[in-house]
Amino acid sequence: MLTADPCRPDQCLAEDWLGFLGHRWNALTLWQLEAGPRRFSDLQERLPGISPKVLTERLEGLQARGLVSRQVSNGFPRTVTYALTVQGAGLRGVLMHLYDWAETLPVMDAENTNAAL
Hints:
The chain is 52% helix and 10% strand. It is mainly alpha-helical and 117 residues long. The relative contact order is 0.12.
C-alpha cells in the first residue's frame, strides 16, 4: 500500500487543512461554535466585520468539510442554527495548541508580517 509523502504538496493532507483553516474567518467561526449551537445572527454579532455573504460562504465551506451542521427548526418563526459536528469539535485541541503556540511568538507589525510572506 502506498502512503502519502508529507513532503509532496499534492499529497499533504495537513497542508490542505492548514490552508482551509487559515482562510479568513474559518477558524474564528469554529471558535464561536465551540460554546454550542448558534444562530446566524448571533455569529454575525460575534464576528465583527464579517459580511452576511462571507459568513454564509464560510458556513457552507465548513459544512462541506463536515465540521459544522445546519439545523432548521419546523416551528414558527423558522430558525436555523449551526453547530460543530464531532469532527469539528475534534479541532478544539488543534486550535488551542495553535493559539497557545502563537501567544509565545513576538507580535509582528503589518510591515514585518508582509515581509515574512
